[in-house]
Structure formats: structure tokens, C-alpha cells
Amino acid sequence: MARPDKAAAVAELTDEFRSSNGAVLTEYRGLTVAQLKQLRVSLGDDVNYAVVKNTLTKIAAKDAGVDSFDSLLEGPSAIAFIKGDPVVAAKGLRDFAKANPLLVIKGGVLEGKALGSDEISKLADLESREVLLAKLAGAMKAAPQQAVSLFAAPLSQAARLFAALQDKLPAAEAPVQDAVADVQDTVEAPAEASTEETAAADS
User: Quick check: pTM over 0.90?
Assistant: First the structure.
């Protein structure tokens, strides 16, 4: 690759690292072009799955302030640059790897924090922000007090999952807490309204 082309490739990769909230490094040795295309489709529009050159990626990662990939950049490498919900992206990669064992998830970075392959697997086990809010929307169709009780159990379960991962997966804390905050704010509002109505009735 000519020097100007290399510089352009490094600049493009650097921008991908900086504009993504997460990135997962994989090895795709043995996968066909058709399988790689299938993977890209399954990951959706919020993930850019790009085959990369290791030497150029090391330079780009360093320029972007990412140092967790250096020791992992060996063999045929491709990176999933995540623009959307990292839980959804982790699920997509994990599920594809289960069906196609030649895809190896080597590690990643989320909001600047390094992740091992096992931590990415644990991230994939979480419920996505969209799922949590969908549960809330369904519960809110009931009366306010019913909605609180209906959602209390899954919310508590999700909170325990998040707490269990906090030490090993600090990078997931921000996006996860955003989802929980949205849920809690919406759940608490009807509960407060119900309390006010009860007080008014007593007076």
C-alpha cells in the first residue's frame, strides 16, 4: 500500500475508534465472504464491521488513545465499531460466533475501558435498553400501581445483573445506568401521582 493510502487508512480507522462508543476485535480466519456479509447484516446499521490490517490498526488505535488491542492484533483481524447499544452488538457477535465457531471474539473496548472476551460475553447476557423500556411500556398500560408492581421484579432482576457486572465490567456502567434511570424515573412518576391522589381523597 502506497504511503498516502496508508495515511488515509490510518486516519479512517482513527476516526472510527473516536466516533464509536465501543469496538470489538475479532479473528475471522476461515470464514467465507458470504459469511462475513451475513455477519454485517446481522449486526445492523449501528455497527460497522471492518476487516483491518494489523499494523495500521495499531497506529490508529494508538492515535485514538486505545492501547488494549496491541497484544491481540495477530492473524486475520476485523473490528466491529459500535455506534449504538453495545449490548445489542455484543449479542449479535456472540450469537454469530456460536453458529460460526471460526469467528473468534478476542477482546474489545467500551467507553475507553478494555474488555476481555469473557466480559463481552457477559455484556451480551444483559437486557438491552430497548428491551427494558419495552417492558416498561407494556407495564404502563395497566393502572399506575399495577405498573409499579408488574415492573418491580424485572427491574430488580436487571439491577442485580448490572451490579454483579459492575466490578468486572465498569465500562458497561454508564449505558446500563442510563437505561435504569429512564426506567426508574418513569416508574416513580405514577407512584408519586397515586400517593397524591390518595392524600387528596383522605382530605
Answer: no
